[in-house]
Amino acid sequence: MKKVTGTIVYENGERVHFVAGPQAFAALETYARRQGFVPTDGANNATVTLYLAYAALRVQEGFDVWLDSVSDIDPDEDLEELEVPPTPEAARLE
Fold this sequence. Notes:
Strand content: 15-25%
Shape: globular
Largest sheet: 3 strands, antiparallel
Strand order of the largest sheet: 2-1-3
Structural class: alpha+beta
């Protein structure tokens, strides 16, 4: 399984490395369904990457609250190559 890695830079200068694996991708799929977007269409790369970091870091506060504390993100790979692993049709909550 492909993993997304990078570093979150917070407003206070703190830098935190993240590794987003299966749990983060599953959380992203759930978030995308709630927000009404397809994470693989390329139109929301910033949101996709930030949400993967958010899920991988297991942040306890809400995404929007956490996002207010983020200054920058340094991804370790080309976001155009991001591949979200498929969820089997029987497992989807539509």
